[in-house]
Amino acid sequence: MRPLRLDTAAAIAGLLVALLLFPLRFFASQIYINTIPIVVGLGCILYLLAVHQNEDERTLPTLSTPAARVLPSVVTVGMAIMVLVTILQGARTPLFFVIAGAVGSLLFGQILFTSDRDFHRGLLLFQIVAFAFVFRFAALYATPGYIGIDIWTHITDLSRSIYLEQSLGAIGDNKHFASPFFHLFVVASSLVYDASLRTGVYLSVGVVMPLSILGVYAGANLLVPSRWATFAAALFSVASYTVMWGVHLIPTSMGLVFFIAIVYALIRVMRIEYTGRDFTFLVFLSIAVILTHQVSTFIVLVLLGAAFLAQVVFMAGPLGLTRLDTSVFRTKKPVNLIGLLVFNFGLSIFVWSLTPFRGDSFLGTVLEWFGETLEESAGFLNLASPGASGSEEAAVPDTGTTLLDQIVPYVNEIGFLLLLGITLVGCLYVVHRRRAEQSVFTLVLGIGIMLFFVLGLPMFGIRNFVPTRWFAFLYVLMAIVGAIGLRTLSRNLSPAPVVAVLLVIVLLYPGGMMLAAESNPDNPVFSNQHEQLAYEQSELAAVDTIGEMTGSPEGSDLRQDQRLYTDHPYQTVFDRTGAYPSVSPAVLPEGGSVEHDYVVYRTAQSEDATFFSSGDGPGYIANPPAERVCRTTQSTVYDNGDVRFCTPSPAQG
């Protein structure tokens, strides 16, 4: 009997799963429920067509030599225009993103459509990294303060405390006391450069983030030729969440850098003859990520668990996976990773047990929260809403009814869906017996497990693992396997559908990823649907002045009615900088006015997407006039033209 062909069986099974999932759209309205079954079905169909044709590599249309030679210059000029537009307009405006999308398409076009003679790996990698620098640092340059929410705590509170006291003991009661590497790196950079903490974080973590793209290339190049490794680096470089952690610079950013290095080191160990030095490097990276970020550590544990499962699969040899075709992959005994997994797991549990968090250990608090979720809110189709970028505690808007409201979610996710489609093809390709190997199985299993955490568990109302923090890590694996998938289609499908697929990637993927909300938190392209996670100079000046006026009281010294209320995310800046305690968005009844005593109004509340609490249930986007926030019965004690601080009137007692 002929052995079961795993790749075609998996493709058929995937097609059946897509058909079974399709009716879920009639029971719940959620972007992934509406789109993923279609993407999975199309990916499986494309792979089955490629398997059916199963011909040698085709001759595809390529750019002429003069065009291939002039495109790098065009890309460079495009990046210069991006810088000029940012300087002249003072922000990354829609014009900036239009130009960036065109430059990104030209970059992808060079990778996919140049002939072998005109393909220059070094030149393309230079363009990719330079483009990543320009796209990210344009946002950092144009933003007066910081981009994001958590960074205000990490820099203005934790790093500043360490800087002033010159001791880690300054944050001894915070959970980052046990994972201080990011903060120490920022403080050290500030001291070395003799610059502010803001400059220090930009010149340290901010510079490392674009350079880490080369790590994705290095890992992919151990599995595929340089053209497709370059394509993997390009996929990752413009991915939405990759960009977000390149401008919202927090421990997650540094954890992502270490994760990329661990992926490269794991693939290297499984692909070549390794030495003790390679395992020592893995141990060093494991310790570094544990001392950097808890969520990143858990994601690394998931990856190592996937690597161990791949080892078990090949050692046990189910379904004949140990019978490798040496013409495709060199036969190599699976690498034993149980020791590395046990070391990481044991050290992580030990550190988490000693980490202070909410009056208990980090491990104890997290397990308690998880248990409460399972008891109180877990349930099928108790969906997690997409949420506001950069904060898992952000309020979420009600679903809009306008045409733009219906289109924006699909624009926001089109890049991820395209990447998911070619990743699925790559996964199907590598499960064939002739191509099976521990390294690629590690990537496939890692993708599957991580998708379960970011897409599967939220379908049951389980959001304790902070799924939005996982996507950038997931993109590392998806970029590598996605490059394998697109290479498979380009080799096996007939030229017409291959060119169509390549053009879709070139024209839609870069622009789609850049238009996603995570790529433009500093100045959202769709400002009526996504909140801005950066602030004008007048808004930051108001925070400082209100803090000075009030003496920045401690939250424990105030009654609940004495706390300050404003929109989300502006309220987080007051609270995280210590200017004035503010724990939640202002309650704005629909059709009514804010009833709090101490409120702050800013013009952005009336013009752009800002969140208010409805009192019951999730928050919503509102554009109230000033009178609904700062009532006429209140006193205005501060007004700089853009921001107004209102307090109870003396006449009221």
UniProtKB/TrEMBL annotation:
Keyword Cell membrane on entry: no
Keyword Transcription belongs to the record: no
Superkingdom of this protein's organism: Archaea
Keyword terms of this UniProt record: Membrane, Transmembrane, Transmembrane helix
Residues spanning the membrane: 6-24, 31-50, 70-88, 95-113, 119-142, 201-223, 243-267, 279-295, 301-322, 334-354, 414-431, 443-462, 468-486, 498-517
Protein name per UniProt: Glycosyltransferase RgtA/B/C/D-like domain-containing protein
Protein's organism: Natronococcus jeotgali DSM 18795
